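HOLO CASE FILE
Compound: thiamine diphosphate
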Amino acid sequence: MMPQESKMTEKTTIAKYLIKSLQGLGIKHVFGVPGDYVLDFLDRVIENGLDFTGTCNELNAGYAADGYARAHGAGAAIVTYGVGGFSILNAVAGACAEQVPLIVISGAPHSRQKYSSALVHHLAGAYNLQLDVFKKLTVDAAVLDNPKTAAADIERVLANCLAYKKPVYFEIPVDAVDLECHARHNAATAAVQRRSEAEILAEAVKEAADMLNAAKNPVIIAGVEILRFQLAAQALKLVETVELPYATTISSKSVLPELHPQFIGVYQGAFSRDCVREQLEASDCALCLGVWMNDFNTGMFTSKLNQNHLINAHADNLQIKHHCYNNVWLGDFITALTPLLQPRSFIQSHPKNHFLPRRDYKPQAGKKITVRRFYERINNLLDDKMILVSDTGDCICAAPDLYIEEAENFIAQAYYLSIGFALPATLGVALARPDKRAVLLIGDGAFQMTAQELSTIIRKKRNPIIFVLNNQGYVIERMIHDGAYNDIQNWQYHKLPEAFGASGAGFKVQTEDELEKAVSIALAAKDACALIEINLGPTDCSDILAELGRKVRGMSK
Ligand SMILES: Cc1ncc(C[n+]2csc(CCOP(=O)(O)OP(=O)(O)O)c2C)c(N)n1
Ligand SMILES: [Mg+2]
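Model generated. C-alpha cells follow.
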C-alpha cells in the first residue's frame, strides 16, 4: 500500500507538506471554522495558496468538503479541537457510509499540555478522545507531532483515503505546525494500486463470461462503486462493446449517461417504473457492477432479482449465484471481462422500453403549483451544463424520474440520508465545478438544518439555483407516520437571500406562471444564486414517496 519510492528528499515543515499533499490531489478549496488550536495552521493554508472558505459551522464544512470530494475526487475540512472536531462528526459518518474521500484536519493543544494533562479549554475527556472517536469513522488517522514520521504518516493516510474512498483524520498540535521535516521530493501520494490475485480473477471472469454469453436477455446494473472508484469509462466501454441494456440505482444515478439508447432507467425494486422493473426482473443474467443492495436502492428490499441469475461484483470481491471470489478488484474484473463477452446485436438486445420522463411542459397561468407539475418543469430545465444536487425528503424520492443527460451530473447522499446535507454540499460542488451550474432540490425541513450556508454561497459569489420545497414540514415522515412533530415553523424562505446580502435573488412561487417567471429570471442571471420557494400542499408528494410510506408503515406493524 505504500506510495512509489523516491530517494530524493527536501526540507519542509509538517504544515507545508500536508498542504502541498492536498494540492497534489488537486484540492484548491478547503472548508472550516477557525479556533485557537488551528490558527497557525490556517495561516500556512492561506500563505501557501489554498482557498479557505469559512462556513457557519463545522458540520456544514464537512458537508461542503464532502460535496467538493464527490465533484472533484477529494475534499478537506479544517476544524479546531473538541468543539470543532465533535461538531463535524455527522458529516464524517456520512462520508464513511457513502465512501467519500473526506480529509479532516484538526488543530490540537500544545504537546506539553497533553503530556502534563493540563485542563485546557475544549477538552471533553482524555486528550486522545477525539482521535479515538475519529478512528472509528475513518480508514486511517494520524497525529502529526513527530517530525521524523510526519511525512510518511501524511503519505500513508492520504493514500488510504484515495484507495478506499473513505474519510481520514489528521491532528496537528499547535507546536508541531512549523516543525521541520524531511519529505520525499514529488511523493506520489495517489499511487496506490488495488490488485487482484491473477488466478482467482481469471476463474471469476471465465465463469461470469460463460454465464453472460449463455444468457438470452442479460442486463447490467451500474452501481455507486463505479462512480467512487472512477471506473465509469471502463464500465461504459463494457456496456457499449457488448451492447447490453443498463440500469442504475438511486445511489448511482447518472454514473453512466441517461441520454443513451441502452439506458433503461433507475431500478428500485417495486418502486421502479414498470418498464424498468419488468426488464430487470425478467432478465436471466444481471451483471451488477458495484451495486449497494441497501434498503433505498432496492425499494425497501422489494427487489426481485433472482440470486441464481446474479453476478454481483464489488470493489474487492465478487459473488456469482451463491458463491464468492475474494481478492478480485472491480476495475480488473471489468477490464478482463469485456473482451470475453460476445457482442449482442443492438436490435436484439436494446431496451424494450426506456423510461422517458421528459414531457412537454406548458405553464398554465394562475394554476396552483403541484409536486407533479413542479418536477415536469424541472425535467425541462435540466441540461448537460447543470449538476443536480438533491437533499433527502420527497425530492430524493422524485429524483429517479429526473432526466440527467450527461454522466455524473447528479449528487445526493442517497444511503446515509442526513437531511441538510445538500445545501452545504452545493457550496462544495459549486466551488469544485465552476464550469457547471448547480441546481439544488431541498425540502423546507432539510433547509432549516443548514440554512446559514446560503450566506456562504452568496459570499463566495456562487450561482446555484436553489428550489426550497415548502410543504410546511416533513412530508416524508407524514407519509410514514403523521403527528404534530412533523410540522415546522413556516419561514419566509424567499426573503433569506436578501437577509444574507443578495438582493433580488429570492422568489416565492404559488402558481405555474410564477414558477416560470422565477426560473427565467434565475436562468438569465447566470452568475448569481437564486432561491425559489415552491409552496406546496402539506401532503402533496411524489408517487414513490406515497408507495414508500405505505411500505414502511406496513413494515412497522
Ligand atoms: C439529520 C437527520 N435528522 C432526521 C432525519 C429523519 N428525516 C428524514 S426525512 C425528514 C424530513 C425531511 O423534511 P423536508 O426536508 O421538509 O422534506 P419533505 O419530506 O417535506 O419533502 C426527516 C426529519 C434525517 N434523515 N436526518
Ligand atoms: Mg418539507
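CASE NOTES: Residues 1-5 have pLDDT under 50 and may be disordered. Residues 198-214 form the longest helix (17 residues).
CLOSED: yes
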